[in-house]
Amino acid sequence: MEQTVAQVIRLDFPSSLQWVHTLHAILSEILSQMPLDKESSDQINLAVVEAGTNAIKHGNQEDPEKRAYFEFVIQPDQFTIVIQDQGQGFDRERVPDPMQPENLFKSSGRGLFLIESCMDEVTYEKSGTLIKMVKRFTKE
Fold this sequence. Notes:
Layout: E1 7-14, H1 19-32, H2 38-59, E2 67-74, E3 78-84, H3 111-118, E4 121-125, E5 130-136
Antiparallel strand pairs: 1-2, 2-3, 3-5, 4-5
Helix pairs in contact: 1-2, 2-3
């Protein structure tokens, strides 16, 4: 996909987990148009679905009056995803490390670790109600 300017795609969904499947389908189609290998596409998909689920479930508490916002910015050298919810936010530093022995067998708590492992850059803004994720395209 040859381009010189950024392409921006914006979505917003009601805060219901039923929309995560739609998010996955739309994202898969977007990723199929990019210069990515399958592993990178899978990593982005996992990170975005996880972050989207977090925004709806934890951020917005699945409140149907609240929305989750998604922005996909496609540039020649990278793909940036911004997800924002209407929740109270959170402090990333206070989220337990899933790799600590006392957390290894917990049934949840790995989402942020997965997101950060899959993407090249992850930042939390607006008190944790906004996550910005970047995946850079490697030159062949």
